[in-house]
Design brief:
The complex is a heterodimer of chains A (about 110) and B (about 120). By secondary structure, chain A is mainly β. Chain A is built from no helices and nine strands. In chain A, strands 1, 3, 4, 7, 8 and 9 form a six-stranded mixed beta sheet that branches. A three-stranded antiparallel beta sheet of chain A has the order 2-6-5, with no helix packed on it. Chain A is globular and about 40 Å long. The N and C termini of chain A lie far apart (about 35 Å). Chain B has about 120 residues and is mainly β. Helix content of chain B is about 0%, strand content about 50%. In chain B, strands 2, 4, 5, 6, 9, 10 and 11 form a seven-stranded mixed beta sheet that branches. A four-stranded antiparallel beta sheet of chain B has the order 1-3-8-7, with no helix packed on it. In chain B, a hairpin with a 6-residue loop joins strand 5 and strand 6. Classes of the chains: A mainly beta (about 110), B mainly beta (about 120). Chains A and B meet through strand 3, strand 7 and strand 8 of A and strand 5 and strand 10 of B.
């Protein structure tokens, strides 16, 4: 299956907001409200940040929010902090299988 | 402490087999679906397979279907991945991950991850 499409990189200054897009198709993102987002720091295991498109697990900062429109899901990080610098991946259920995005490297300037 | 510990990785020749294990602790294992996710060196995440709490529903990525088999033993709090006919492109760090729900497709979100076990396929 084809990976979901994410921008390779985004950047922002501390205190700013950024948005990472995740574009799929009507077979995955567009058909199911099962998009999740993960943060991965170098050498570490991924961490769940958003599930079911917009829900935050306990302990995740409310600076992280998720949304979806059509075949595109988005992750917004507000009030950027240095520790937000990491790779971010979206993931969607795609009917009998799962699919990840290619990942986005967030740089905090 | 909630924990997942993978084992069984290593160097294997193309065409051979390997069995990965994941030991779970700190939560009620048989209440949750489980998944395997892999990451090739320097690359992104790839979902490999998922299994529901009672093994009643299983899914595989197209890239491993017919070669890999996921299973679980709830009595032993363990998840497994039998990998046959291994290829160079299967080289990756393999993570075991817990789902938020009992069916692998109900939430399809992974809230607990292990540290991974490395599989290298090379002659």
């Amino acid at each position: 299956q084809s990976a979901l499409t994410q921008p390779a990189s985004v950047s922002g200054s501390p205190g700013q907001s950024i948005t990472i897009s995740c574009t799929g198709t009507s077979s995955d993102v567009g058909s199911y409200n099962l998009v999740s987002w993960y943060q991965q720091h170098p050498g570490k295991a991924p961490k769940l940040m958003i599930y079911e498109g917009s829900k935050r697990p306990s302990g995740v900062s409310n600076r992280f929010s998720g949304s979806k429109s059509g075949n595109t899901a988005s992750l917004t990080i507000s009030g950027l902090q240095a520790e937000d610098e990491a790779d971010y991946y979206c993931c969607s259920y795609a009917g009998s299988k799962g699919v990840f995005g290619g990942g986005t490297k967030l740089t905090v300037l | 402490e909630v924990q997942l510990v993978e084992s069984g990785g290593g160097l294997v020749q193309p065409g051979r087999s390997l069995r990965l294990s994941c030991a779970a602790s700190g939560f009620t294992f048989d209440d949750y679906a489980m998944h395997w996710v892999r990451q090739a060196p320097g690359k992104g995440l790839e979902w490999v397979s998922g299994i529901s709490w009672n093994s009643g529903s299983i899914g595989y990525a197209d890239s491993v279907k017919g070669r890999f088999t996921i299973s679980r033993d709830n009595a032993k709090n363990s998840l497994y991945l039998q990998m046959n006919s291994l290829r160079a492109e299967d080289t990756a760090l393999y993570y075991c991950a817990k789902d938020l729900g009992s069916s692998w497709y109900a939430f399809h979100a992974f809230d607990i991850w292990g540290q991974g076990t490395m599989v290298t396929v090379s002659s």
